[in-house]
Amino acid sequence: MSARHAVRSDAQPQSGRRWRVGVYTVCTPHLSPAEVVEQVAHSPVLAGVEWRVTDERWSGPPDEPVSFLGRNAATLTACEDAADEAARLAGAAGVATIAWNPYLRVGDLDGVERHASLAARARAGGLRLRAAEYMSGEPVDQVLRDSRRFVARAGEICARHGVRVLVEMHQRTVCASASAARRLVDGLPPEQVGVIYDIGNTVIEGYEDPRVATAALGPHLAHVHLKNAAWERTSAGAWRSRWVPLDEGQVDAPAFLDHLDNIGYAGWVSLEDLSTHRPPAQTLRHNEALLTAWLTHSTVTPPDAQRSDTPGRST
Known about the structure:
alpha/beta, two-stranded antiparallel ribbon, 11 strands
């Protein structure tokens, strides 16, 4: 690792760049779905929305602070009305709907059928899934086989709805790394089953040089999540990871984006910044400015340089 280790016509990639930038609503808990779409529609760099989806509405205290996995106003409820509204909002604003991201357990094929239908209604291109965790004590080969059977069947189901399965590389699962993800999806039709390369998650577990990782994923590289993380010593001397701003941490984000250019990547890059150094609204503005500077190789200093000491909730 190094020292840091259908869209609006006015939101086209820079010359020579084929990929586009969106935002995953897990990191916009302060915005309603309509406000997220409006923010993207008026952004100089964002062009799409990736929706966080849960089965139940938030039912906690109404005065609880917004948070990524708790009181998140941008989260959609898994129902036809929400999917139709997401499609209407995005269509009216000329914003792409990148993916529909529920929380399904491995083996829940009924859930895949239901959410694939909802994703299609929302006009999302992908349905995010995660592989099984391997911390249960079961033999890892068995967990991998179970996950592979599930992903393969999910790909067939989603294909009937015109949606592609997106398996996320995630720590504590059997596809934490690109090589492990390749083992999971190898031989499955890439037009049915793709992989979300989450470069920030690999700081915690599964890091490989991006040149090796993208080559290993090959045609299954379907989507990218962009965030950053770092390891630090606790007061007791133990190591722990934490989410940090995009321009900090162990991922050299500008170099990583340049690499995507170099390999001709043509998918989406979704912001999934889970750092709590700034309030979410400031984080989004900061990241838009960063990306604008990086993509134009500018030296403009991003706004909101002052951080917030208000603690937040992460994943």
